[in-house]
Amino acid sequence: MSSTTNSSVPLPLRERSSDIESSASTDPMEMSVCEDDLMVVETTPREDVLQSRNDDIYDVPEYAADIYQYLREAEVCHKPRANYMSKQSDITSSMRWILVDWLVEVAEEYSLHTETLYLAVSYIDRFLSHMSVKRDKLQLVGTTAMFIAAKYEEIYPPDVGQFAYITDNTYKVGQILRMEHLILKVLSFDMAVPTAHLFVNKFSRMCKNSEETLNLALFLAEVTMLDCDPFLRFLPSMIAASAVALANHTQGRVAWPSHMVESTGYALEDLRECYVNLYRAFSRVHEPQQHAIRDKYKSSKWHGVSQLSPRQNFPW
Fold first, then answer.
1. HEC string of the chain?
2. The CA-based dihedral angle spanning residues 219, 222, 228, 233, taken in that order and rounded to the nearest 10 degrees
3. Among residues 315, 13, 301, 280, which one has the least CA distance to residue 144?
4. Which residue ranges are recorded for the region named Disordered (predicted)?
5. Which of 15, 123, 167, 286 is deepest in the core (most CB within 10 A)?
6. Minimum mean pLDDT range among 7-16, 254-263, 280-289, 290-299
7. Of 292, 58, 3, which Cα lies nearest the Cα of 198?
8. Mean pLDDT, to the nearest integer, of 261-271?
9. In angstroms, rounded to a whole number, what is the distance separating the alpha carbons of residues 89 and 84?
10. Domains parsed from the chain with CATH numbers
């Protein structure tokens, strides 16, 4: 991991809060038979066959239904409490919003996978569902959650010292390690959780979406991490399904094809409440306020999907 300069590092949260083959034979007759066979065998697989094999790698059709059923059960087990913020005496939803926004910048600075970000936010919400946290320790919880998620998901995770540095040394390495111990204990070391990011990719492959439509769905799903109300009420798979449907509709495609109902267990009507809330969040994304996710998805890497606007009608 290359070192970062002070000018390129995201501001610490405390500063931002004010504004986050077969063997050959020697027999001539046998050799002749082999040559005849080769005349009718395609030596180079067709491109559509290769693509089919690539799809099978990810979708493993023999086990896909069982895997999906397991993920749907697991997301229920790991769902944070939707109303946990009402039990917190010293932090608010806006503070959490700033924290997640800052973590998006941290993930971009260290080139972390998007799944790492989703896992970190999941750990934060699950932890805060059980523990009351003072406002001066909220950034410590977020930083440590990202540290744990990086160790779980990344091949080369940043060192703990880099996470201390990213907070402008507001928290020392020892504090992060002690908080890591506490978070792992509270979460019972249960770090493998299905996220909306996983489901968006799965549903988009099932819909055979273009890369731009996939990026729009990823953007929409990421936006839901900012608002605990209302999106903590919905399971990751429902958020993902709504994001894919809204992305499809925005791109002029069928929002939720009929084969998706049978494959996912969600009908478009089941997604109505989540879809409408996601539509509202999409409509407000251009409002002039700090928004790291919007800025992230403006780049050509993501086809600039955050600059799009939703259509004025609904698909039902």
1. CCCCCHHHCCCCHHHHCCCCCCCCCCCHHHHHHHHHHHCCCCCCCCHHHHHHHHHHHHHCCCCHHHHHHHHHHHHHHCCCCCCHHHHCCCCCHHHHHHHHHHHHHHHHHCCCCHHHHHHHHHHHHHHHCCCCCCHHHHHHHHHHHHHHHHHHHCCCCCCHHHHHHHCCCCCCHHHHHHHHHHHHHHCCCCCCCCCHHHHHHHHHHHHCCCHHHHHHHHHHHHHCCCCHHHHCCCCHHHHHHHHHHHHHHHCCCCCCCHHHHHHHCCCHHHHHHHHHHHHHHHHCCCCCCCCHHHHHCCCHHHCCHHHCCCCCCCCC
2. 90
3. 13
4. 1-29
5. 123
6. 7-16
7. 58
8. 94
9. 10
10. 74-186 (1.10.472.10), 196-307 (1.10.472.10)
Please report which confidence band the pLDDT of residue 33 belongs to, taking 50, 70 and 90 as the band edges.
very low
pTM tops 0.85: no
Q: What is the pLDDT of residue 49?
A: 45
pLDDT tens-digit profile of 65-94? 899 999 999 999 999 999 999 999 999 999
How sure is the predictor about 51, in pLDDT bands with cuts at 50, 70 and 90? low
Distance CA 238, CA 265 (A): 10
Q: Which two tokens stand for residue 231?
A: 């999106």
